[in-house]
Design a protein that fits this description.
The chain has a 6-stranded antiparallel sheet. Helix 6 runs antiparallel to helix 10 and helix 68 packs parallel to helix 72. It is mostly helical.
C-alpha cells in the first residue's frame, strides 16, 4: 500500500493551471469513480498521475490564504466566491474522492463497520464532566466519560465526578490504566476476533488522497505563520489562520472518529517518512513548495532550533559524575547525554545555511548535551504537525485531533516519541507564551494520556532518553530565573537560588513539566532507572539546590516593611511541586530491602549537594542572626530517605550518616526554623507584615506539613540521637535566645531578647523539646498508628466533616503511597475513633452538616496535646482542643476543675533512635529543669503555667524512659557521691532513678555551718556542685558564681565538643565565646543572689512536693498514696491520675519516682513527714503579698462581673418573654400585640425606639413593624394530593393548568367574556398570584420615631443587606427585616364588650341595619396624621406587587380595580394564615401565626379605603341576597348591555369580605353574624346546584321526587332533600341539564350518591368559607378558636360562628342544612337565583355549567418533589439546552416551584436588563424565586432585589453538602432540609431566617 501511495505522490507534476480543468466540469462523483477504477487496475501508474494532477489543482496551498489575507475575491478553480468557498470546494472534492464515487455518509458507515472499538478514547476539553474511580484505576490519572461510567458497574466503589480542568480522554478499555472489571458494556468485549478484514478497495483512495491533504494543511500552517517582531506572537494573526483552517482540522477529526480502520490509514500516512520526504523537501520547480519550505526553515531558526546539516551522530558521552564542577558555581551538574536521536541519513538540505546555534543560558555545565535543547529534525508529517501545533500554542482543535488518534497503538508510540523529541521546544514556547495557563492545560491534556501508561513510559525512557530530557529541560527552565542567594554570607555567597518573584514561579509556569515528571516517576520501571543513574541523580540534586534557601526572610527591626511581598505562595508551591512531590514519587519505590542501593545513591548525592551548599554560603556553625528561610529541600530529601531506609529497608542508620561535624551543620537550619516559628508567634517579626505569619502557618498546614515540618523535626531527632546531648540541649536554648533566663537569680538581663518576649520564647523552647522527644511519626509508628494519631488530633480540635478530615490529614502527597483518601484504612480508623453526628434541623437554625466527633474513650486515652500543638495552624485551635477536653471531663465526672494537658504514653522507639533519650539524661537539661522548678516555686517573673507544664512533662518523659538504661559509667558516678554524703542522717536519697542523682541536693540546718563560708557566692557554687558528679571537679573549681554556672557549662560543653571534632582553629571558639563572656551582673544583684541561694535546700523531689503544696494552696497537702494502699506500687497504671491539673501531674510524677526506686520512696515519705515550716525570704513575701492582693482584687472584680451578668441575663429574659425570637417561627413564645384586657377601653403600645408607652392617637399614631411582600404561594395549591415531580427526562413535563392560580384566572376571564366588567370584579378574589402578604414581628413604634430612624439609616454609610431607599429597615428591637409600618387604629384592639353582646333583634332588623350602614358614604376622615399614614401604607401595599397583579379590569385605571385589589389583600392574608395552620382549624387558637397577626390593623386600613367607594345600591349584591325583586323580566330586557354576574356565580368568601369592609368600623358582632348567616344560605344553595350538576339524569329525577314529597313538612327549608329537589326542578326550566349527546356523560363519574356522601360533599363544599369566616371573627373580635377533631370541624365552626341554633342537640347525626337561617322564604329566593342562571344558560349552556362547579378543596402548596439521587438531576440538566436561547447554559438552574429551566446570569436570555432568573422569580413567584443551581447542587433564593445562597438539600453519605460539586461524591436528598426550605417558602420567612443577603442588580 505504502509503495503505491508513494508512487502516486511521486514527483511533483508541472503546474496545470492553463488546462481548463476538464475534471472539474464533470460531476465530482463520476470523476472519483473513474479514478478509483483506474487505480484498482494492477498497473495503476496512469491513474495515479491523473489523481496527482487533480489533487495538485484542488489543494493548491497558495490560493486560499493569500486571498484571505488580501481580502480579494479569489476566482477559485472550483468557481465560487471568497476564500471560504474555495476551501469548501476542496473539502467536497476530498470527501468524494475518499468515497470513490459513492456517497460520503455511506462510506463513513462502511468504514465504521470495521471498527474493533476496544478502546473508548473519547477526548474532552476543559469543563467536561467526567468520572474517576479509584477502585478500578491502576494509574491515579484514570478517567472515564459519563457514558462509560454509567454503563460500567461501580457500585460500592470509591469514585467521584469531576469537572475536567485541562481536558482529558476516556480510558475505558485500556487495561494499562484501569482494571478490566471496570470497563463498560461496550468496551468489555475484546471484539477484534469477529471483526472481518478490511477490504482493500474500501480505503484505497484514502491512502492516495490523505498524504496530499495533510501536506496541504502543513503548507497552510507554514504560510500562515509570521514570526512576530518583538518575540510576541500577535495572537490575532495566529487565531485568524486557525479559524480558516477549522474545517480542514474538523474533517481530520471526523476521520478519526470513523474507527480503527481509518485510524490505521491515518497512522500510516502520518508516520511514513518517504511520503514526507517526497512532498516537503522543497526541491523541484514548484515555486510554491519551495517558498513554503523556506518559511518552515525560518520558523525553525526563529525558535532557536537548528536543522542538522550534516550526518551528525551524537555519540553518547559517559556521564562523569564529579568532573563537571563549575569553578564559579560550586555545584556539580552532569547529565547523561542524548544518544542517537537524530542519526539520519538525509541528504543535505538546501536553504539551511547560516543558521547558527542559539546562545547559551547563563548557567550550564559543559557536559550537558546541547542536542536536547537545540536540535530538531522532522522526518514525518506527524513530527512537523506537532511542531506547528506547539508553534501555534496548542490550538484546541489540533490537540483534539492528535489525541483522537491515540487508540491506534502504533500511532501512540510514534506520537509519544515525537512528543518527547519536541519536549525542550515545548518548554521554550511555554515560557514565552502569554496564555501560559491555557497552554499548560493543553500540554498536560496531551502528556497525561502518554505518560500514565507504564509500558509506554518505559519504552520511551529506554529508546528516547526521556528522563535525561525531562531533567535537563527542567534545569534549563529554572536556570533562566536564578539570583544570588543572600543567606548567611551575603557578600561572598556563591549559591544561586530561584527568584520567587519571577513570572515563571509566580504563575506556576513550570507546572506541566513537573507534573509530567511526577507522572513518569510513579512508574516503578522508570523510577528505578532514575535511581540507578548517578549522573541523573547529580543533575537532579543540582536542580533541587536551586530551591534551597529561596525566599529568604530578614527580620525588620526598625520600620514596618512598606511592601508586603506575596512571593511566599510561589516558594511553597514550588518546593511542594518541584521538589517534594518527585521525592514522594521516588520514595514510593524504596519500600523493600532490595532497594537499599537506591537509598544509598540518593543519600550520597544529597549529602554531596549539602556539603557544596554549606561551602557555597560559607557556613561554619553559627547561623546569621535575624534571617530565616523555610525552604530546605535538600535537608528534607536527606531526612525522608533516611526515614525510609530505617523503616522499610532495614538499613543500618549509622552507615548512611555523615560525621559529627556534618551533623552539627545539618541541625542548624532546621533548628533555626523552629526558633523562628516561636519568634513569629511571639510577635517578634511583626514589622515584616502579615505575610510572615502566613509562612509560619503554611509551613505546618496539612498539605505541606509532611513535606516540611515533619522531615525537619525528624532530621533534628536524628541529629539529637547522634550528637552529644549537652551540646544539643544548649544549642536549643541558645537558638531560642533564652539562655540568660535560666538563672537561679530572681532578676537577670537578656542581651538578645526583650523582656516581653522571654516568656513565650521559653515556652517555645520547652514545647519544642517536648515535641522533639515525644513525637514518633518517623521513629517507630506504623502507618495505621500515624493515621490514627493524626485523625485524633484533628477531631480533638473541632468536630469535623468527613471531607475536611480528608483534607486536614496529611496523606503522602503521592497517590500511590498507602493512605489514599477514602481507602479502607481511613474509614476503619475513622469509625474506630469517632462517632457520627447526623445533621440536625431546627427551623431557623443554621444548616448543619454531618460531623464526626471523638468517642469518649479517645478523650480518655488517646488525646495527645503534643500532636495537637504540632498540627495547629492557629494557636486558638490548641485552646479549643483543651476546652473540649475540659468539657468532656466535666461531663463524664472524671475531673471538675481546669485540667492540664494529659500525659500520653508513647509508641516504643525504633532501636536506631534510642540515642534520642540521652537528651533526657544529660546534666544540662537537669540543671535547666531544676532551675525552672525553683524559679516557679519562688514566683519569679516571666514564668507561666505552660512552662511548668512542659517542665513536668519533660521530667515525666525522663522517668518513663530511664529504666532500661543501666550502664557501668553511671554506677561509678553514684559511688563517690554516696560516700560523700553518707553522714547526713536519714535523708540520703540513693535512687534507682540513677540519672537524678546529680540533682539531689539535701541541706539540713545543722550542716550549714560546715559549708566553706569564704563567700556566699562560693557556697552557692559548691551546693550546686554537689549536684554534679565527681567526674568534673576541675570545672567546678574554676567557677565562682552560681549563676554563671549553667551557662559556663554550656560554653564548656561546646568547647569540649569542638575539641572532640578537632576543629582547633580559633575562629570557631570565637563564635561561642562572646555568648559567655558578656555575662552581666547588676550592681545591686549580689545580695539578692545570696538570699536566693541561701534558700535553696531542695532536691527535685522536694521541689515537687513543695510545688504540690503551692498548687493546692494547703500546707502539707501531699501525702504519699502508697502509705494507705500498698497496691498502688504493684499496679502502676491508675486511672485516677490520668486526668487532672498540675496537682495530679505532680502526684503522678512522685508516684513514678517512688516506683522506680525504693530510696526515692523513702525520701518522699521523709520529706512529707517533716512539717515544712515556710521560710521564704522577705523579698518573696512582698511579691506574694502583691500576688495575693492581685488575687483578691481579681476575685472582687469577678464577683462584680457575675452580678452584672446576672442582671443582664434577667433583663434579657424579660425581653425574650415579650419579644418573639425571629429565628424560630414555629416554636417561639407567642406575643400578644397588645397588653389590653377586654374591659380596658384603649390599647396601649410600647414604642421600641423611644421606649414610651401609650395609646395610638389621631395626631401621634403608633404603628406595627410589618413586612409587605408579594406572594404567589396560594396560586401553587393544587387539587390533587399526588405531588408534582421535578422532570428528569424529556417525557416528563409540568403543565400549570391545575394550580389554584390558573383555575381562578380561567374563571375570571370566562366571567369577563359574558358579564358586565364591574360586576365581574366583585364576583371573585384575586391575589392568588402576586397577592400582598403582611406579616409583623409584633413590635410597635411611633410613626414619627420611625421616620427619624429611617433618616439615620439613610445617613449610615455601613453597607446593609437591605435598601433604605426602598423603605426597608430592620426592627430596632428584634432586627427582623421589615419594609413598612401599619398604623394602629385608635381604640380598643379587642372590640368592646357592648359590641359583642348578642342583641335580641330579629335577623330582618339586622339585615336592614346592615344595608343602611353600607349605604352611608364613607367620607375620608379629616386630614390627621393617622389618615396620612393610612394612605401611605395603602400606597406601600399597592406598590408591593406588580401592576399586572392589580389591574384585572378591562378598562384600565377603573376604581373597580382598587376595590377588588383591596378586599383581595384581606383574602390573601386570611388564606395564607389558614395554610400556616395546616389548611384547617382543628388545632384551635394555639397557632403562633395568630398571636403575631396584624390582620386587625390591616382590616382597619382596608375598610377605611373601601368605604370611599360606594357600591351603587342598585347593584349591591346584599339586596339580591336578602330581598325578593319583583320585576325579574324587565332586568333582562336590554340585551345589548352585558348582564350582571348571577349571584350563584359569585364567590361567597369574596362577598363576605366586601360586605364587612363596606361597614363602618368597628363592627358590631351582631352585624357580623347576620352577614355570615345570609351568605351561608347562598353558599349552601351553590353547593346544592353544583351537586345537581355533578350527578346524572336518573339520580336527578329520583331526588326531584323524593324531595318534592317532603316539601310541605314543617322545617322543609332546613332539609337538604327538599331544597335539592327544588333546585333541580327550578333549573330544569332552563337548558342547564340538556346534555349534548353522549360525550358529556363520559366526563361525569357515575358515583352512587348516598345521603351520607351527599352530606359530606355539602360540608366539604362549605368548610373553606367557614374556616376563613372563623379566622376573621377571631381577629376582629378576639374570640378564641376551639380545637376539634377533623370530622367535627364543620359543626364546631358553625356553632362558633352562631349559625347553629343554641338548642341544637348533638345526639342524632349532624346535618349541615340545620345551620340554614333564611332571611326570606327559601323557595322564593332560590327560584329568583335560579332564574338568573337559566336566562344565561339559554345562550351558553356549556359555560354556565362550568362556572357552577367550583373547586373548593385545595391541597396545601408544595415544592416539586425531587429525586432521591442528585445524579439523575445533574445528568439530565447539565447538558440540557435552554428553550429560549437554545444553547447549553454555563450556569443552568431550575425553579423548584414550577420546574422551569433557566440560565443563571446568562446574558443570552436577558430581557430589558433583567436576567432570566430574576425575570422568572417575578413571573412565577411575584418576586420570590427558589432555584436549584445544577452545577453547584446549591439552592439560591431570590427575594425582590436581593438574593441569598440558601444551602443544599442534597448531602453525601456523610451528611455533607458538596457545593459546586467539588468532591463529586454521590449526593442524596435530605428530606428534613427540603422540608425546612418548603416551610420557609410557605411561611414567607426567607427574609428573617437567612442572614446573608446581597443585592443581585438583576444580574442572576
Amino acid at each position: 500500500m505504502a509503495a503505491a501511495a508513494a508512487a502516486a505522490v511521486g514527483g511533483p507534476q508541472p503546474p496545470q493551471a492553463e488546462v481548463p480543468a476538464p475534471g472539474l466540469a464533470l460531476d465530482k462523483a463520476a470523476t472519483a469513480a473513474h479514478l478509483k477504477a483506474a487505480l484498482s487496475r494492477p498497473d495503476n501508474r496512469a491513474g495515479a498521475e491523473e489523481l496527482q494532477a487533480l489533487l495538485e489543482r484542488v489543494l493548491s496551498a497558495e490560493r486560499p490564504l493569500a486571498a484571505a489575507a488580501d481580502g480579494e475575491e479569489a476566482a477559485a478553480a472550483g468557481g465560487g466566491g471568497g476564500p471560504g468557498a474555495a476551501e469548501e470546494e476542496a473539502l467536497e472534492w476530498c470527501k468524494c474522492l475518499l468515497a470513490g464515487g459513492g456517497g460520503y455518509d455511506e462510506f463513513c458507515a462502511a468504514v465504521r463497520a470495521y471498527d474493533p472499538a476496544a478502546l473508548c478514547g473519547l477526548v474532552w476539553t476543559a469543563n467536561f464532566v467526567a468520572y474517576r474511580c479509584r477502585t478500578c484505576g491502576i494509574s491515579p490519572c484514570m478517567s472515564l466519560c459519563a457514558e462509560c461510567f454509567h454503563q460500567g458497574d461501580h457500585t460500592g466503589h470509591d469514585f467521584n465526578m469531576f469537572r475536567s480542568q485541562a481536558g482529558g480522554a476516556c480510558d475505558c478499555g485500556d487495561s494499562n490504566v484501569m482494571r478490566e472489571s471496570g470497563f463498560c458494556k461496550r468496551h468489555q468485549i475484546k471484539s477484534s476476533s469477529n471483526i472481518p478484514c478490511v477490504p482493500k478497495d474500501l480505503l484505497m483512495m484514502s491512502e492516495f488522497v490523505l498524504p496530499r491533504f495533510i501536506f496541504c494543511l502543513i503548507q497552510y500552517l507554514r504560510e500562515g505563520y509570521n514570526e512576530p517582531a518583538a518575540d510576541v506572537p500577535s495572537e490575532k494573526d495566529l487565531n485568524k489562520v486557525l479559524q480558516l483552517l477549522e474545517p480542514q482540522i474538523s474533517f481530520l477529526e471526523d476521520l478519526t472518529k470513523m474507527g480503527g480502520a481509518m485510524r490505521s490509514v491515518l497512522t500510516q500516512v502520518l508516520t511514513n517518512q518517504q511520503n514526507y520526504k517526497d512532498l516537503t523537501s522543497g526541491l523541484g520547480e514548484n515555486a510554491c513548495a519551495r517558498k513554503s519550505h523556506e518559511k518552515y526553515l525560518i520558523a525553525l531558526k526563529s525558535s532557536g532550533l537548528t536543522y542538522p546539516e550534516d550526518k551528525l551522530v551524537y555519540g553518547i558521552q559517559e556521564p562523569s559524575a564529579g568532573a563537571s564542577t563549575l569553578a564559579v558555581q560550586g555545584f556539580a551538574s552532569a547529565a547523561g547525554t542524548l544518544g542517537q536521536l537524530d542519526s539520519s541519513d538525509e541528504e543535505d538540505q538546501d536553504g539551511s545555511q547560516g543558521l547558527g546555534k542559539r546562545k547559551r543560558v547563563k548557567l550550564s555545565s559543559n557536559t550537558k548535551d546541547q542536542s536536547i535543547m537545540d536540535v530538531l529534525k522532522h522526518k514525518s508529517f506527524l513530527e512537523e504537525l506537532l511542531f506547528w501545533t506547539i508553534k501555534y500554542e496548542f490550538p484546541q482543535k489540533m490537540v483534539t485531533f492528535l489525541l483522537n488518534m491515540l487508540p491506534d497503538q502504533e500511532y501512540k508510540v510514534a506520537f509519544t516519541k515525537t512528543f518527547v523529541q519536541h519536549y525542550a521546544f515545548i518548554m521554550k514556547t511555554l515560557k514565552k507564551s502569554h496564555e501560559s495557563d491555557t497552554m499548560s492545560n493543553r500540554i498536560v491534556h496531551i502528556s497525561v494520556q502518554l505518560f500514565s501508561n507504564e509500558e509506554l513510559a518505559r519504552q520511551v525512557t529506554e529508546e528516547c532518553q526521556l528522563l535525561d530530557i525531562m531533567v535537563t529541560v527542567l534545569l534549563y527552565m529554572m536556570e533562566s530565573c536564578l539570583i544570588k542567594s543572600e543567606l548567611q554570607d551575603e557578600e561572598n555567597s556563591l549559591h544561586v537560588v530561584v527568584n520567587c518573584g519571577e513570572a515563571l514561579l509566580k504563575n506556576n509556569t513550570y507546572w506541566p513539566l513537573v507534573s509530567d515528571f511526577i507522572n513518569i516517576l510513579s512508574h516503578q520501571s522508570v523510577a528505578k532507572r532514575f535511581l540507578e543513574d548517578h549522573g541523573l541523580l547529580v543533575t537532579w540534586m543540582n536542580f533541587v539546590s536551586f530551591f534551597q534557601g529561596m525566599n529568604l526572610n530578614k527580620r525588620e527591626l526598625n520600620e514596618h516593611v512598606e511592601f508586603e511581598s506575596q512571593t511566599y505562595y510561589a516558594a511553597f508551591a514550588a518546593e511542594l511541586e518541584a521538589c517534594a512531590q518527585p521525592m514522594w514519587g521516588l520514595l514510593s519505590h524504596c519500600k523493600v530491602r532490595e532497594t537499599q542501593e537506591y537509598t544509598r545513591n540518593v543519600v550520597r548525592y544529597c549529602l554531596e549537594a549539602l556539603q557544596d551548599w554549606f561551602d557555597a554560603i560559607n557556613f561554619v556553625d553559627e547561623p546569621a542572626p535575624n534571617q530565616v528561610t523555610f525552604h530546605l529541600p535538600l535537608h528534607r530529601y536527606y531526612a525522608m530517605f533516611l526515614s525510609k531506609a530505617v523503616k522499610c529497608q532495614e538499613l543500618d542508620l549509622d552507615s548512611v550518616l555523615p560525621d559529627q561535624e556534618m551533623l552539627m551543620k545539618l541541625m542548624i537550619h532546621p533548628l533555626q526554623i523552629q526558633a523562628s516559628l516561636a519568634e513569629i508567634h511571639s510577635n517578634m517579626w511583626v514589622r515584616n507584615g502579615l505575610q510572615i505569619k502566613g509562612q509560619a502557618m503554611t509551613y505546618v498546614q496539612s498539605h505541606f506539613c509532611n513535606s516540611m515540618i515533619d522531615p525537619d523535626i525528624y532530621l533534628l531527632q536524628v541529629c539529637a540521637s547522634r550528637l552529644d546531648p549537652d551540646y544539643f540541649i544548649s544549642s536549643v536554648f541558645e537558638r531560642f535566645k533564652v539562655v540568660d533566663l535560666l538563672t537561679m537569680a530572681s532578676q537577670h538581663q537578656n542581651t538578645v531578647l526583650d523582656a516581653e518576649h522571654e516568656r513565650s520564647m521559653l515556652e517555645g523552647a520547652l514545647t519544642f523539646l517536648v515535641i522533639l522527644l515525644s513525637l514518633r511519626l518517623h521513629l517507630g509508628m506504623s502507618d495505621d498508628e500515624i493515621l490514627r494519631a493524626e485523625m485524633v488530633a484533628q477531631l480533638c480540635m473541632n468536630d469535623r466533616t468527613h471531607s475536611s478530615l480528608l483534607d486536614l490529614i496529611p496523606e503522602n502527597p503521592n497517590p500511590k503511597s498507602g493512605i489514599i483518601p477514602g481507602s479502607y484504612s481511613f474509614e476503619s480508623v475513622l469509625s474506630a475513633v469517632a462517632d457520627f453526628k447526623a445533621p440536625v434541623f431546627e427551623p431557623g437554625g443554621s444548616m448543619q452538616q454531618g460531623m464526626y466527633t471523638p468517642k469518649a474513650e479517645v478523650w480518655d486515652h488517646e488525646f495527645d496535646p503534643v500532636m495537637v500543638i504540632l498540627r495547629t495552624v492557629y494557636r486558638r485551635d490548641v485552646q479549643s482542643a483543651m476546652d473540649r477536653y475540659t468539657a468532656f471531663l466535666k461531663q463524664s465526672g472524671k475531673f471538675p476543675g481546669n485540667p492540664w494537658p494529659p500525659y500520653k504514653k508513647r509508641t516504643p522507639l525504633h532501636p536506631s533512635y534510642k540515642g534520642l533519650m540521652r537528651l533526657l539524661h544529660c546534666k544540662t537539661l537537669h540543671i535547666v529543669l531544676f532551675t525552672l522548678l525553683y524559679k516557679i516555686l519562688m514566683d519569679h517573673q516571666n514564668l507561666s503555667e505552660h512552662v511548668l507544664c512542659m517542665v513536668l512533662y519533660l521530667i515525666e518523659l525522663g522517668l518513663e524512659n530511664s529504666a532500661e538504661e543501666e550502664s557501668d559509667e553511671e554506677a561509678s558516678a553514684c559511688g563517690p557521691e554516696r560516700c560523700h554524703d553518707s553522714w547526713f542522717p536519714g535523708s540520703n536519697l540513693v535512687s534507682n532513678m540513677r540519672h537524678f542523682i546529680n540533682y539531689v541536693r539535701v541541706r539540713v540546718p545543722e550542716t550549714a555551718p560546715e559549708v566553706k563560708r569564704d563567700s556566699l557566692a562560693s557556697t552557692s557554687s559548691d551546693s550546686l556542685g554537689s549536684l554534679q558528679s565527681s567526674r568534673r571537679p576541675k570545672v567546678l573549681q574554676r567557677e565562682n558564681s552560681g549563676t554563671a554556672q549553667v551557662f559556663s557549662l554550656v560554653a564548656e560543653r561546646r568547647k569540649k565538643f569542638q575539641e572532640i571534632i578537632n576543629r582547633s582553629n580559633s575562629e570557631a571558639n570565637q563564635v561561642v565565646r562572646p555568648k559567655t563572656s558578656s555575662k552581666w551582673s547588676a550592681p545591686g544583684s549580689a545580695p539578692q543572689l545570696t538570699t536566693a541561694i541561701l534558700e535553696i535546700k531542695e532536691s527535685i523531689l522536694s521541689l515537687l512536693i513543695k510545688l504540690h503544696h503551692k498548687l493546692s494552696g494547703k500546707q502539707n497537702s501531699y501525702y504519699p498514696p502508697w502509705l494507705d494502699d500498698i497496691e498502688i506500687l504493684i499496679q502502676p497504671e491508675i486511672p485516677k491520675y490520668s486526668h487532672g491539673d498540675g496537682i495530679t501531674a505532680v502526684e503522678r510524677i512522685l508516684l513514678k519516682a517512688a516506683l522506680q526506686s525504693r530510696m526515692n520512696k523513702r525520701i518522699i515519705e521523709e520529706i512529707c513527714r517533716k512539717v515544712t515550716p515556710p521560710v521564704p525570704p522577705k523579698k518573696i513575701t512582698a511579691a506574694e503579698k502583691k500576688t495575693l492582693d492581685k488575687e483578691e482584687r481579681r476575685q472582687k472584680a469577678r464577683e462584680r462581673q457575675q452580678k452584672l451578668l446576672a442582671e443582664f441575663a434577667s433583663r434579657q429574659k424579660s425581653f425574650m418573654e415579650t419579644a418573639m425570637d425571629v429565628d424560630s417561627p414555629e416554636s417561639d413564645i407567642p406575643m400578644e400585640i397588645t397588653t389590653a384586657e377586654p374591659q380596658v377601653s384603649e390599647a396601649v403600645y410600647d414604642c421600641v425606639i423611644c421606649g414610651q408607652s401609650g395609646p395610638s392617637s389621631e395626631d401621634r399614631p403608633t404603628g406595627l413593624v410589618v413586612l409587605l411582600q408579594a406572594s404567589s404561594v396560594l396560586g401553587q395549591c393544587r387539587d390533587n394530593i399526588e405531588p408534582k415531580k421535578l422532570p428528569i427526562s424529556e417525557e416528563e413535563q409540568i403543565y400549570p393548568w391545575d394550580t389554584c392560580a390558573a383555575v381562578h384566572d380561567v374563571r375570571l376571564s370566562l366571567l369577563q367574556r359574558y358579564f358586565k366588567d364591574s360586576s365581574c370584579l366583585l364576583a371573585v378574589s384575586v391575589g392568588w398570584e402576586g397577592g400582598v402578604y403582611v406579616q409583623t414581628c409584633g413590635h410597635t413604634l411611633h410613626i414619627d420615631c420611625h421616620k427619624s430612624y429611617m433618616e439615620s439609616l439613610r445617613n449610615d454609610q455601613v453597607l446593609q443587606g437591605f435598601s433604605v431607599d426602598k423603605g426597608e429597615f430592620t426592627c430596632p428591637l428584634c432586627r427582623q427585616f421589615a419594609n413598612s409600618v401599619l398604623p394602629c387604629y385608635p381604640g380598643s384592639n379587642v372590640e368592646n364588650n357592648l359590641w359583642q353582646r348578642p342583641s335580641n333583634k330579629s335577623i330582618q332588623d339586622l339585615i336592614k341595619e346592615v344595608e343602611e350602614l353600607q349605604g352611608r358614604p364613607g367620607a375620608f376622615p379629616s386630614e390627621t396624621n393617622l389618615s396620612k399614614e393610612m394612605e401611605s401604607v395603602m400606597k406601600d401595599i399597592k406598590n408591593t406587587t406588580q401592576k399586572k397583579y392589580r389591574d384585572y379590569s378591562k378598562t384600565p385605571g377603573s376604581p373597580d380595580n382598587d376595590f377588588l385589589f383591596m378586599y383581595s389583600v384581606a383574602r390573601t392574608n386570611l388564606e395564607l394564615e389558614l395554610i400556616h395552620r395546616g389548611g384547617n382549624l382543628c388545632s384551635g387558637g394555639a397557632s403562633t401565626a395568630g398571636k403575631r397577626s396584624c390582620l386587625n390593623q390591616l382590616f382597619h386600613v382596608l375598610a377605611l379605603h373601601m368605604r370611599l367607594y360606594s357600591i351603587d345600591s342598585e347593584y349591591n349584591p346584599w339586596r339580591k341576597l336578602t330581598q325578593l325583586l319583583e320585576e325579574m323580566s324587565s332586568q333582562l330586557g336590554n340585551e345589548e348591555q352585558q348582564p350582571e354576574v348571577p349571584i350563584l356565580y359569585h364567590d361567597v368568601t369574596s362577598l363576605l369580605l366586601i360586605q364587612i369592609l363596606m361597614m363602618p368600623q368597628p363592627l358590631h358582632k351582631d352585624h357580623f353574624t347576620c352577614i355570615v348567616k345570609v351568605l351561608f344560605t347562598l353558599l349552601y344553595t351553590q353547593g346544592l346546584v353544583a351537586l345537581s350538576v355533578k350527578c346524572n339524569e336518573e339520580d336527578r329525577s329520583a331526588w326531584k321526587h323524593t324531595g318534592a314529597l317532603k316539601k310541605n313538612t314543617c322545617d322543609a327549608e332546613k332539609s337538604y332533600e327538599v331544597l335539592l329537589s327544588f333546585v333541580i326542578s327550578e333549573l330544569s326550566k332552563g337548558k342547564l341539564y340538556h346534555e349534548e349527546g353522549t360525550q358529556e356523560c363520559a366526563t361525569i363519574i357515575p358515583v352512587a350518591w348516598s345521603p351520607e356522601s351527599m352530606e359530606k360533599y355539602l360540608q366539604d363544599f362549605c368548610l373553606p368559607f367557614l374556616r376563613i369566616t372563623s379566622l376573621l371573627q377571631h381577629h376582629l373580635f378576639g374570640e378564641d378558636l376551639p380545637s376539634c377533631q377533623e370530622e367535627e370541624e364543620f359543626s364546631v365552626l358553625s356553632s362558633c360562628l352562631g349559625l347553629l341554633p343554641t338548642f341544637y342537640q348533638t345526639e342524632h347525626p349532624f346535618i349541615s342544612a340545620s345551620c340554614l337561617d333564611w332571611p326570606v322564604p327559601a323557595f322564593d329566593i332560590i327560584s329568583q337565583w335560579c332564574f338568573e342562571i337559566n336566562s344565561f344558560t339559554e345562550r351558553h349552556a356549556e359555560q354556565g355549567k362550568a362556572l357552577l362547579i367550583q373547586e373548593s378543596k385545595w391541597k396545601l402548596p408544595h415544592l416539586l418533589q425531587l429525586p432521591e439521587n442528585y445524579n439523575t438531576i445533574f445528568q439530565y440538566y447539565h447538558r440540557k439546552t435552554c428553550s429560549v436561547c437554545t444553547k447549553v447554559p454555563k450556569d443552568p438552574a431550575v425553579c423548584l416551584v414550577c420546574g422551569t429551566f433557566v440560565c443563571l446570569k446568562g446574558l443570552c436570555c436577558k430581557q430589558q436588563s433583567y436576567c432570566e432568573c430574576v425575570l422568572h422569580s417575578q413571573n412565577c413567584g411575584a418576586g420570590t424565586g427558589i432555584f436549584l443551581l445544577i452545577n453547584a447542587s446549591v439552592i439560591i433564593i431570590i427575594r425582590g432585589h436581593r438574593f441569598c445562597l440558601w444551602g443544599s438539600v442534597y448531602l453525601d453519605a456523610h451528611g455533607e453538602e458538596d457545593r459546586d460539586l467539588r468532591r463529586g461524591k454521590p449526593l442524596y436528598i435530605c428530606k428534613e432540609r427540603y422540608k425546612v426550605l418548603e416551610q420557609q417558602w410557605i411561611s414567607h420567612t426567607f427574609d428573617h431566617i437567612n442572614k446573608r443577603w446581597g443585592p443581585h442588580y438583576n444580574g442572576l
